[in-house]
Every structure is written in structure tokens, then in C-alpha cells.
Amino acid sequence: MSSLKFTLENIDKVIDRSVMVAPEIDPKRATLLVMDMQPVCTDPDGALAIPSVGGAPSGKDTVEPVERVVKRFREEGSPVIWSQWGLSPEGLDKGICALKWPALNPGTPESAASWGNPQTDHFAGELEPREGEPVLRRSRFSVFVGTQLEEYLRELGTEFLVIAGITSANCVHATTIDAWNRTYKVIVLADCTTAVPSPHTHDVPLGYGQHWEALRNIQMNYGDVITSGELFERLEAAKKPGKYQRA
């Protein structure tokens, strides 16, 4: 397991962030999407536990930053939408997962990825949706597929879609692409997400592994990759006179 520390300095060493789609963020037009913060990935004993590789956060490392972001959005009065990924224990929606992840036994009652399993049904740490915060359950990587997300974002008047959660190389990446296709300004929080490493990416230098490749791809093509600290700075900047009129 990598011992490299995940820092803002490390991000800039391996990701070119010279072009941003959202250098400023209006909290009144921003929605937070919390993706798949489930023990199956965040718990060190989870079936899809994510270690730290190449300086990326472990699954457990993402919980506290996500908790802080949720708290801040609630303080701002900005909407929070939650999503969970899982599969039917009857196997009716297992799709390609059954072929790619046979060791997880997708689509069976025994699978940790099946609904009804505590690793999939629950949220990590102190994370818990409040009344009025929708929870979208789905069986595909993109949160836009098979859910009401697009309708909710439209009704909320969302311009900026802030994404926190797991995993950067699968569900976050797929959702970011779909959001780009719908012209949302996407902001992915690098310290609030990570990815399951490939078998050959253990003990590798800074910037290697699925997490970093996904973030580089997102930053290059689809949206902004920033830290939760940078997000808070942008939200604070929005309060300055001459920026956005606050109700």
C-alpha cells in the first residue's frame, strides 16, 4: 500500500489544472451529489475496500471530507442529493457486472453489492440524508441512468454540479460524462473520491492508478478537479460584494 500523502501540492504535480469551467461557484445554483458512500467501499473490511495507491485517498479517507462538504452545503442552504449503487439479489439488473466482477457474485443474495446487505444499504460514517434530501438508488454507474436526477437538477435550477463520493474511475466518471453532455458545470472533489486499484498498481509512484487517470481525464475533458478546501474558498468568494446577490 502506498504511503504517499494525498495533498493539493501532489494534485498539481500530476494533473494540469490550468483551465477551469467553474473558477467561481454560485451557491444558489450549485447542487451537491453524494455518490455511493457505502461501507462496501469505505470500510476497510468491505468487499470492495479501497486502499491508498499512488498517493490517492483510501476509501476510509474520503468519509470525513465528504461529511464536511455535506455540512457546508446544508449551511449554505444549497441542495444535497444522495445516490447509492447496488444490484438486485435476484440478478435481474446485474448486467455486465456479472461478467467483469465474478468474484463479487453480482446479482446473488450472497453478494455484498446486493440490496439487503448492510455494506450496500447503509451510508458510511456519520453520513445520513436529511428529510427533503433525495436518495437515488440505481444499478448502473451513471446517476443519470434510471433515476430522477435530471428532473431534480432542472427543477432546482442547477448550473454547478459538485460531486463527492466513490468511485472516481467508475460511477463518478460515468456521471461526469453524462453531466457534461447535459451542459452542467461539473466540479469533482479529489479528496472526496477515490478508485479501486488495478492489481498491478500497488506500491507505485505518485500519480499512478485508476484514481489519478480518472481525475486527469475529467479535468482534461469534462469538468474541474479541486479539493474540498478549494471548494470552500470558492463558496466564500461568492459572498464578497459584487459577486452574487444573496437572498
CATH topology: Rossmann fold
Termini separation: 48 Å
* Succession of helices and strands: HEHHEHHEHEHEHEH
The percentage helix is 25-40%
| Beta-strand proportion | 5-15%
Number of self-contained structural domains: 1
Largest beta sheet: strand ordering: 3-2-1-4-5-6
Q: Identify low-pLDDT runs.
A: none
CATH class: Alpha Beta
Shape: globular
Q: Please give the largest β-sheet.
A: 6 strands, parallel
Structural class: alpha/beta
Strand segment tally:
6
Q: What's the architecture, going by CATH? A: 3-Layer(aba) Sandwich
CATH superfamily: Isochorismatase-like
Q: Radius of gyration from the CA trace?
A: 17 Å
Question: What do the pLDDT scores average to?
Answer: 91
| Tally of DSSP helical segments | 9
Please explain how this structure is put together:
It is a single chain. The chain has about 250 residues and is an alpha/beta fold. The chain has one domain (about 5-15, about 30-85, about 120-235): 3-Layer(aba) Sandwich (Rossmann fold), CATH 3.40.50. It has nine helices and six strands. It has helices at about 10-15, 40, 65-75, 95-100, 120, 150-155, 170-180, 210-220, 230-235; strands at about 30-35, 80-85, 135-140, 160-165, 185-190, 225. A six-stranded parallel sheet has the order 3-2-1-4-5-6, sandwiched between helices. It is globular, with a radius of gyration of 17 Å. The N and C termini lie far apart (about 50 Å).
